[in-house]
């Protein structure tokens, strides 16, 4: 398998977390398999997460941290996001990063609509993996919540800017895992990291 350029974003706002551990395990396995890896931790990034003005004609300039994230996405063949699901969605700071960084002219082009009038995506040619942790059992996620966050990430965020396909790894019971469960999860993450999947 040819080497891939992989950008990993640990989307947990805390300095220590299961998401961070997954990001580092994936990175280590990918590097050992010969892939080129860049990694960023949300807790290390200095930026204003409030979109503020609320329009695409007069948005805030990107801080160096956000410029770096976008540079790393544009450099990559494959993007990995590790994040918890909180209240059915993304952590506020991670959502703020997306709101601020995925701007017109960098992530999508509203002046060049594709079929149906949707803006043209500008981050095509990349795949993604989202490693999602939650306390919600998988069957509740599927049947009651209809996998809403997964639909949002796949279609309305990553897919909207052209990053696809997006695959998901879902770990439930993250706040109080059964004995040995975290080590099994680490093994799964390392396996997909070695495969750059």
Largest sheet: 5 strands, parallel
**Rg (C-alpha, Å):** 17 Å
Architecture (CATH level 2) name = 3-Layer(aba) Sandwich
Tell me the span between the first and last alpha carbons: 11 Å
Query: Structural class, judged by helices and strands?
Result: alpha/beta
CATH superfamily: Flavodoxin domain
Write a structural description.
The chain is of the alpha/beta class. The protein has a single domain, classed as Rossmann fold. It is 35% helix and 21% strand. It has helices at residues 18-32, 64-75, 92-101, 138-143, 148-158, 181-194, and strands spanning 5-10, 36-41, 78-84, 108-109, 120-121, 126-134, 163-172. A 5-stranded parallel β-sheet has the order 2-1-3-6-7, sandwiched between helices. The chain has a two-stranded antiparallel sheet with strand order 4-5. Helix 1 links the parallel strand 1 (5-10) and strand 2 (36-41). Helix 1 runs parallel beside helix 6. The chain starts with a strand and ends with a helix. The mean pLDDT is 94.
Structural key phrases:
two-stranded antiparallel ribbon, oxidoreductase activity, alpha/beta, globular, Rossmann fold, Flavoprotein-like_sf, 197 residues
Short description:
Residues 4-178 form the Flavodoxin-like fold domain. With 197 residues, this protein is of the alpha/beta class.
Q: What is the fold's blueprint, element by element?
A:
Elements: E1 5-10, H1 18-32, E2 36-41, H2 64-75, E3 78-84, H3 92-101, E4 108-109, E5 120-121, E6 126-134, H4 138-143, H5 148-158, E7 163-172, H6 181-194
Parallel strand pairs: 1-2, 1-3, 3-6, 6-7
Antiparallel strand pairs: 4-5
Helix pairs in contact: 1-6
């Amino acid at each position: 398998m040819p080497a891939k350029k992989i950008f990993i974003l640990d989307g947990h706002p805390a300095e220590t977390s299961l998401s961070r551990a997954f990001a580092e395990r994936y990175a280590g396995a990918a590097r050992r398999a010969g892939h080129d890896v860049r990694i960023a931790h949300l807790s290390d990034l200095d930026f204003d997460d409030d979109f503020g003005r609320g329009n695409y004609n007069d948005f805030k300039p990107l801080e160096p941290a956000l410029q770096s994230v976008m540079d790393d996405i544009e450099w990559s063949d494959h993007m990995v996001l590790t994040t918890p699901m909180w209240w059915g969605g993304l952590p506020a700071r991670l959502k703020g990063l997306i709101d601020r960084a995925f701007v017109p002219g960098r992530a999508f082009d509203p002046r060049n609509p594709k079929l149906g009038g949707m803006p043209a995506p500008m981050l095509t040619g990349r795949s993604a993996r989202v490693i999602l942790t939650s306390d919600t059992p998988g069957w509740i996620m599927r049947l009651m919540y209809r996998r809403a966050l997964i639909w949002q990430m796949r279609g309305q965020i990553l897919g909207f800017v052209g990053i696809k396909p997006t695959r998901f790894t879902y770990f439930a019971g993250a706040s109080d895992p059964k004995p040995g469960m975290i080590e099994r999860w680490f093994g799964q993450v390392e396996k997909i990291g070695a495969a750059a999947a």
